[in-house]
């Protein structure tokens, strides 16, 4: 479970003798960033006003955050390395927690490969491929059905998320796929 | 220090020059590529202020030809030295891409070789932080000889001290074989890549367009080729990962693995374990849920998470004691053993055996993966690797059969007869030559063909098979397993059993080395 | 003859729901324990349980006519209630029950058959001059014929499975080019889902409202309706939120549609509770879509505004009783909204979210009803639908119902699963929902975000993630690794180890 949130958090990143870590940055899936100073505090500024967050736990809600007299049930659904999926009040938020250096790197790398974004379509859920509707090399528009995935006794149409060219198809009809299995690669068009 | 002292003048000048070389400009160069400087990496790896550099002031070998040029610099593009990681001695080298692209010249190679040999002499782990364009062309065959020496050291150290390679930039051509010879390879996503022949050659020879990342990026090597074990999104966390891994391994093959003081313990008795394996024998579940309930809290460090996912491997702790875990993953390919998972498992088992890390096997395996592909690509030879590795291993070996345990795969997964010290089974275990459907089809083919209602007959036969053959009690009564246990007490059983085995030693016939089917 | 015992050929919340009424009526209930969920909560509501948990079978017992007949014979029940889904609309099953002298709680096999086959239903509707969307009343054989029909009635058109229901085997075609492929997909899916590849074509009505009427009909020729339910909040033809009455209907329109619904029911000599579904276009023209010959998932909203117990009505009709009220006596009081709390990841396109309910805390109050077949510790498995519970909120008018709903949803906590609750919070804030003008394309057109999230929530989540990160890093830094202990080796093993090198 959570370690007690101490009065003041001081931490050093790695063992650098030169650099003291001054802040951490949580970056969400839309690249929106939330900065938190180190030492870490439990006082947050939202809409111009500062208030305190308290972590509490009870039998009804499990762990929750108490902020401005409102309760927000919270849990970590997934964590791996510096990636977190936080479920707060029923909604998932995806963050990577970055140090100033790794944040700079992230920004730098995203501008580098930015203009052309390719899509790798992965299976949203485990199931069986009923039919592949497209072929390698075909130009597709966004929203065009690419294949039919049967899961939970429902046939789901998997559509092209972007316009472009089908670069590679990794599945064939009748094949079973697992969640996150790569199915189709699309090269973004102009 | 008295700066006017004449004898110190030269000393200070050199210091200044060196500091300048590793100064802000050097960092900026690397940062502009999204990378950290060699020194920053070293600082991240070691405990604060513990790193001692060796051979900081050596200069590159003199080149007599006029082909290409050699930059004036101290250190010849590599920082080598030693320091403390979590308080323990660790040796390391870090290539500096800002000096002639981190290329490997004679002096550069000598430095790496020196630190490798020191690590071996001292019996301490070594970490290589790799960021190099390859052999230094100007220096010709001398560079190649340098590589050969490094490879030789890698091989001499193999199984004696833990060797970890961290790829943080390019590693191309012959250079890839040093990491390949070490125990674990870490890569940083998007800024590191490894390949024997680069995209240019691929383009020339095969006329295929491919980028560095597509050919040998971190994702490719951790998901597809299995060459690398760990991938992180940035360098700080990559190095953090290396530090974490080091906490599981001993310094050398004589020591036992380190022990955690005050581990975060999970309850020894856990009812939840009874519910992990579904009632329906064909239903998948995540074997990692079993691992999380058995191991100390947050102690599982998975290796090769994204490669051959039908077998889960990694280090964990049981009451603070380090163990290696090998587990079939019913969630992926029903937990069958295929070529890739066998290779993945075998290598991990051999690492654990080399470094006295006890092995826990969690078994739920319906068999080997059938198929023309698998047979033609040599599942026989490759499947034998894991069999060989398990049998050869002399560390304490315990198996828990969670559910399926069929056929050749049963033998492979550390069965009693190939040297499993304790083999436990859960009541959900099914141990037999093959699964019920297969067995019924083989033995009652005629009867089923002749039957009026083959489905009902088949159902009955399957039930009889389960009752009479495919259950853990027969194996228990005949002594092929040690005990059928309540899943809830598994952790406690394991702790006691590993404790009993801690002074295990096995004499093997003396030989130069075995001939593992490669 | 009165029914003294009922076999509930269903599971989950509807099994619990049926058992509740049976208990009130003093009828003994039998439930079936399956190998898929031998510890399921619904079993605890049964008087008696028939145990099949040792039998692994390919086909689920609730779909296995022979097995169910066998169980009915062994348990000697008077009647079978099929609930919804599974065999609820299977004419063959209904017939087998009758043959075995067991009451099937539902309409006659003939009515099930006629309404179950959509082309037959369309033919009957045509004969009785019920308004229908333009289209075919027979099944279409091939893509070429489909194209001819579509060209005639004009795009967009919708292809539907003749034996379909619940949104499966349905395809909307906007352009002629798409027709051939969509036709193939629809027939494939229909074949898979219903064992019958036949499909028919209708004019696709754009942005309609989905309005359905609850019918009650007894065996004495009395048929009444209990008002409508509005079920326009759907995703992929799956209803998510239903309310009664509909904000779109005037008393006149209600009467007209209600009378039409009764006419359809009478056309097939319908007995029991049933639902007639209509599409209502933006000019208030309504078209008969289909009739569901079973109890609906969303029946509670009608119960909340009529004060009737529909399951009880079904049972009473099945044992031959006359309806206890006439159309004039039907009073619609207040407003009720039902929320299907499904284990779905709204952020991942409503895909099923498998997991275990670690904690669940439900709202309560006089105007709140919760129908659920799941308790803390239960899992959502891929074998069944993903419904966790139905939350039904009643208010004196729509505004009050919405206000009360917001409160109730804020008190509905589930830990361990992702659910549709955040989605409903967004819906309740939506303007088009609040003024009642929404249509079946609500989710695609009106909602930018499928879930509500305030700035505060975002920052709190980011703060919490960062805190976790810091805690982990600090723990790593303070973790004590004892390397010395690794060097402390028992001489027994150390000597041998050294010698073996």
Written description of the protein model:
The complex is a heterotrimer of chains A (190), B (518) and C (501). Chain A has 190 residues and is mainly beta. Chain A has 1 helix and 16 strands. Chain A folds into 2 domains: 2-107, no CATH class; 115-188, RNA polymerase II/Efflux pump adaptor protein, barrel-sandwich hybrid domain (OB fold (Dihydrolipoamide Acetyltransferase, E2P)). In chain A, strands 2-1-8-7-6-5-4-3 form an 8-stranded antiparallel sheet. A 4-stranded antiparallel sheet of chain A has the order 9-16-14-11, with no helix packed on it. In chain A, β12 and β13 form a beta hairpin. Mean pLDDT of chain A is 79; it is low at 1-17. The N and C termini of chain B lie far apart (60 Å). In chain B, the strands form 3 sheets. In chain B, strands 11, 12, 13, 14, 15, 16, 17 and 18 form an 8-stranded mixed sheet that branches. Chain B has a 7-stranded mixed sheet with strand order 1-2-3-4-5-7-9, with helices on both faces. In chain B, α4 links the parallel β3 and β4. Chain B folds into 3 domains: 3-246, 2-enoyl-CoA Hydratase, Chain A, domain 1, CATH 3.90.226.10; 271-434 and 471-500, Alpha-Beta Complex (2-enoyl-CoA Hydratase, Chain A, domain 1); 436-469, no CATH class. In chain B, α17 (436-443) crosses α19 (454-468). Chain B has 518 residues and is α/β, with parallel strands linked by helices. Chain C folds into 4 domains: 5-105, Rossmann fold, CATH 3.40.50; 134-203, 2-Layer Sandwich (Dna Ligase, domain 1); 209-443, ATP-grasp fold, B domain (D-amino Acid Aminotransferase, Chain A, domain 1); 454-499, no CATH class. In chain C, 37% of the residues lie in helices and 23% in strands. Chain C has 17 helices and 23 strands. The longest helix of chain C is centred in the last third of the chain and has 24 residues, at 455-478. Chain C is globular and about 95 Å long. The chains are: A mainly beta (190), B alpha/beta (518), C alpha+beta (501). Chains in contact: A-B, A-C, B-C.
């Amino acid at each position: 479970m959570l370690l007690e949130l101490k009065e003041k958090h001081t931490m050093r990143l790695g063992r650098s003798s030169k650099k003291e870590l001054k802040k951490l940055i949580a970056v969400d899936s839309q690249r929106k960033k939330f900065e938190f100073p180190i030492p870490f505090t439990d006082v947050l500024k939202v809409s111009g006003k500062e208030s305190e967050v308290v972590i509490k736990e009870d039998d009804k809600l499990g762990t929750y955050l108490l902020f401005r007299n409102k309760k927000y049930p919270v849990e970590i659904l997934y964590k791996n390395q510096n990636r977190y999926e936080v479920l707060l009040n029923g909604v998932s938020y995806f963050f990577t927690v970055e140090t100033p250096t790794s944040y700079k790197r992230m920004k730098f790398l995203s501008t580098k490969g930015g203009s052309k974004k390719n899509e790798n379509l992965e299976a949203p859920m485990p199931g069986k491929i009923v039919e592949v509707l497209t072929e390698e090399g075909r130009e597709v528009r966004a929203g065009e059905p690419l294949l039919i995935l049967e899961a939970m006794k429902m046939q789901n149409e998997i559509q092209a998320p972007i316009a472009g060219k089908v670069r590679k198809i990794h599945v064939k009809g009748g094949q079973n796929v697992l969640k996150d299995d790569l199915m189709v690669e699309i090269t973004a068009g102009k | 220090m008295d700066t006017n002292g004449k004898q110190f003048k030269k000393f200070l000048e050199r210091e200044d020059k060196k500091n300048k070389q590793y100064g802000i400009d050097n960092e900026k160069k690397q940062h502009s590529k999204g990378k950290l400087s060699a020194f920053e990496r070293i600082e991240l790896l070691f405990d604060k202020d513990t790193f001692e550099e060796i051979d900081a002031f050596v200069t590159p070998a003199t080149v007599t030809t006029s082909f290409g040029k050699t930059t004036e610099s101290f250190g010849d593009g590599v920082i080598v030295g030693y320091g403390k990681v979590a308080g323990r001695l660790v040796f390391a080298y870090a290539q500096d891409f800002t000096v002639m692209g981190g290329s490997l010249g004679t002096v550069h190679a000598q430095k790496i070789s020196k630190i490798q040999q020191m690590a071996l002499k001292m019996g301490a782990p070594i970490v290589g932080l790799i960021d190099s364009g390859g052999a230094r062309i100007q220096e010709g065959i001398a560079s190649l000889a340098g590589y050969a020496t490094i490879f030789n050291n890698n091989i001499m150290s193999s199984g004696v001290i833990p060797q970890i390679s961290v790829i943080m930039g390019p590693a191309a051509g012959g250079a890839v074989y040093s990491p390949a010879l070490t125990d674990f390879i870490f890569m940083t996503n998007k800024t590191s890549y490894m390949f024997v022949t680069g995209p240019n050659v691929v383009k020339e020879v095969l006329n295929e367009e491919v980028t560095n990342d597509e050919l040998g990026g971190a994702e490719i090597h951790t998901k597809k080729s299995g060459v690398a074990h760990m991938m992180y999104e940035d360098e700080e966390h990559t190095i953090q990962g290396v530090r974490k891994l080091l906490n599981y391994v001993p310094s050398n093959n004589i020591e036992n693995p380190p022990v955690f003081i005050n581990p975060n313990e999970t309850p020894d008795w856990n009812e939840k374990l009874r519910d992990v394996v579904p009632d329906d024998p064909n239903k998948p579940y995540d074997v990692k849920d079993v691992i999380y309930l058995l191991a100390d809290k947050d102690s599982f460090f998975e290796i090769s998470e994204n490669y051959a996912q039908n077998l889960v491997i990694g280090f964990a702790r049981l009451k603070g004691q380090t163990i290696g875990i090998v587990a079939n993953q019913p969630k992926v390919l029903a937990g069958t053993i295929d070529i890739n998972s066998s290779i993945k498992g075998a290598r991990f088992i051999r690492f654990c055996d080399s470094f006295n890390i006890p092995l826990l096997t969690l078994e739920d395996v319906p068999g080997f993966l059938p198929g023309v592909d698998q047979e033609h690509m040599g599942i026989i030879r490759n499947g034998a690797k894991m069999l060989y590795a398990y049998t050869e291993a002399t560390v304490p070996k315990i198996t828990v059969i969670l559910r399926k345990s069929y056929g050749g795969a049963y033998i492979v997964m550390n069965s009693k007869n190939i040297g499993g010290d304790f083999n436990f089974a859960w009541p959900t275990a099914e141990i037999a030559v093959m699964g019920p459907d297969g067995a019924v089809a083989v033995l009652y083919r005629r009867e089923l063909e002749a039957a009026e209602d083959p489905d009902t007959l088949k159902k009955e036969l399957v039930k009889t098979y389960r009752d009479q053959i495919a259950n853990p009690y027969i194996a228990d009564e005949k002594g092929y397993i040690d005990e059928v246990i309540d899943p809830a007490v598994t952790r406690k059983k394991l702790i006691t059993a590993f404790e009993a085995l801690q002074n295990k030693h096995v004499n093997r016939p003396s030989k130069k080395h075995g001939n593992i089917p490669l | 003859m009165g029914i003294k015992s009922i076999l509930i050929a269903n599971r989950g919340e509807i099994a619990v729901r049926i058992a509740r009424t049976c208990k009130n009526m003093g009828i003994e209930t039998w439930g079936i324990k399956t190998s898929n969920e031998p510890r399921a909560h619904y079993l605890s509501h049964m008087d008696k349980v028939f145990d099949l948990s040792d039998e692994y079978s390919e086909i689920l017992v609730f779909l296995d006519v022979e097995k169910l007949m066998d169980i009915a014979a062994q348990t000697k029940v008077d009647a079978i209630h099929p609930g919804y889904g599974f065999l609820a609309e299977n004419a063959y099953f209904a017939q087998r029950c009758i043959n075995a002298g067991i009451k099937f709680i539902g309409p006659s096999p003939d009515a099930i058959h006629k309404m179950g086959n959509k082309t037959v239903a369309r033919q009957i509707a045509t004969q009785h001059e019920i308004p229908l969307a333009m289209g075919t009343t027979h099944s279409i054989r091939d893509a070429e014929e489909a194209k001819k029909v579509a060209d005639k009635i004009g795009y967009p058109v919708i292809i539907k499975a003749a034996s379909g229901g619940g949104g499966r085997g349905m395809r909307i075609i906007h352009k002629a080019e798409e027709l051939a492929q969509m036709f193939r997909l629809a027939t494939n899916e229909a074949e898979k889902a219903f064992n019958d590849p036949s499909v028919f074509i209708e004019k696709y009505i754009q942005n309609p409202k989905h309005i359905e009427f609850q019918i009650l009909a007894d065996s004495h020729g009395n048929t009444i309706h209990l008002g409508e339910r509005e079920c326009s909040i759907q995703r992929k033809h799956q209803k998510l939120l239903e309310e009664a009455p509909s904000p779109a209907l005037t008393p006149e329109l209600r009467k007209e549609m209600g009378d039409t619904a009764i006419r359809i029911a009478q056309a097939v000599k319908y007995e029991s509770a049933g639902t007639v579904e209509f599409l209502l276009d933006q000019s208030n023209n309504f078209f008969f879509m289909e009739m569901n010959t079973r109890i609906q998932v969303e029946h509670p909203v009608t119960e909340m505004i009529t004060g009737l117990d529909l399951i009880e009505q079904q049972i009473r009709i099945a044992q031959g009783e006359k309806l206890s009220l006439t159309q004039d006596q039907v009073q619609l009081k207040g407003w009720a909204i039902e929320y299907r709390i499904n284990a779905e990841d709204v952020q991942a396109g409503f895909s099923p979210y498998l997991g275990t309910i670690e904690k669940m805390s439900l709202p309560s109050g006089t105007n709140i009803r919760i129908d659920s077949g799941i308790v803390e510790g239960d899992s959502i498995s891929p074998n069944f639908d993903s419904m966790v519970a139905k939350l039904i909120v009643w208010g004196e008018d729509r505004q009050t119902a919405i206000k009360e709903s917001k409160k109730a949803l804020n008190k509905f906590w589930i830990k361990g699963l992702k659910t549709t609750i955040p989605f409903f919070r967004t819906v309740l804030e939506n303007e088009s929902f609040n003024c009642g003008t929404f249509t079946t394309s609500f989710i695609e057109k009106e909602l930018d975000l499928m879930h509500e999230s305030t700035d505060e929530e975002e920052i709190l989540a980011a703060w919490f993630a960062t805190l976790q990160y810091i805690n982990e890093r600090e723990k790593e830094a303070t973790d004590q690794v004892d390397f010395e202990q690794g060097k402390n080796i028992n001489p027994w093993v150390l000597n041998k180890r050294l010698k073996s090198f």
